[in-house]
Amino acid sequence: MKLFSQLLTITFLVFALNSFAQSDEFKTKAKPKTDTTAKKKGGILGGLIQTDILDNIKNAKKTIKDVKEDIKNNKEEFKRLKGEAGDLSADLGLKIGKSKKKGKVKKKPKDEYENIKFELRIGEYGSGTRSTVEEINVLRNPDEAEPSIYAKEIWWYDPKLRRVTNVPRKDKDYGEICHGPYKKYINDELVEEGSFYVGVKDGRWETYNQEYILLSKEKYHEGFLSDSRISYYDKEEKKIKEVIPVRFNKVTGDYRSFYNAGQLKEEGKFDDSVKVGRWREYHQFGTG
Q1: Is-contact 117 177, C-beta < 8 A?
Q2: What is the layout of strands, in order, in the sheet containing 253-258?
Q3: How many CB atoms lie within 10 A of CB 40?
Q4: Distance between CA atoms of residues 191 and 161, nearest Å
Q5: Strand 224-225 with 214-221, pairing
Q6: Short-list 134, 136, 242, CA closest to 199
Q7: For the chain: N or C, fewer Cβ within 10 A?
Q8: What Å distances lie between residue 270 and 240, 244, 246, CA to CA?
Q9: Alpha-carbon Rg of the chain, whole angstroms?
Q10: How far apart are the first and last CA of the chain?
Q11: Domain ranges in the chain?
Q12: pTM over 0.90
């Protein structure tokens, strides 16, 4: 009896729910989410594709089409810019080429030093391990330049001795004035190198031992140490009044002073600003 009552209650509830679901108040007016607009029976894929998905697909296709169009336009623009860049590069290259051609530095002649021509002489003397070879350059045209009247020593090539010397020449027509690069070898090893300017040392001079280890290095300017303090009588700096030697920021070396006409007035040696050895003064027109 109790079981029958329970079955009756369940039947009543099912009937009541079914009636409520079919009533007008329960029905919704919302648009169905599935595609019901297709003409074919069952819609697209039987109505399984939702309307909002179809809209997204359409928008995506439109976006892809727009992107392709942009790519096409960009390719054409890139092609145009590339052509302009190529023309500009070619034009720029031509201009640079012309500029280089105009600005090309003229090479210095190999047979000139300070715009004065020279020619090579080879000096040889000594024997055995003291066999000496000198590569000497001399003035090609002796009339082109003359040694400075202010020079303490003049270097020249003695063709009889076949070597360079700085002893005073008794005959000015004998020997050849050194000018240009100079190298000295002993037993085939370089031991000294530098340059001469019309008979005086110029530029950097270096000496080495026979293991090619640097022994000394000096820098000259037309016969004087390059750091020397030189004073002049004239504004053009042609007439030297005094030469104070400076080596490694110290007053060291040969001191010389001159009269206005170029005659030697006084000479001596300094060692770290101290006068050493014999100093001599000269009269303008005779020895002192």
Answers
A1: no
A2: 229-232, 240-244, 253-258, 264-271, 274-281
A3: 7
A4: 20
A5: antiparallel
A6: 136
A7: N
A8: 19, 9, 9
A9: 52
A10: 166
A11: 109-226, 228-288
A12: no
Q: What is the mean pLDDT of the chain?
A: 81
* Lookup: tokens for 181: 């690069």
Distance set, CA 19 to CA 22, 23, 27, 28 (Å): 5, 7, 12, 16
Considering only CA atoms, which of 179, 211, 209 is closest in space to residue 194? 179
Indicate the SS3 state at residue 131: coil
Q: Give the model confidence (pLDDT) of 195-242 as tens digits.
A: 999 999 999 999 999 889 999 999 999 999 999 999 999 999 999 999
**Extended strands (E) in the chain:** 112-113, 116-125, 132-139, 156-158, 163-165, 176-177, 180-186, 189-197, 200-208, 214-221, 224-225, 229-232, 240-244, 253-258, 264-271, 274-281
**How many CA within 13 A on the CB side of residue 243?**
30
Q: Which residues contact 149 (CB under 8 A, 6 or more apart)?
A: 262
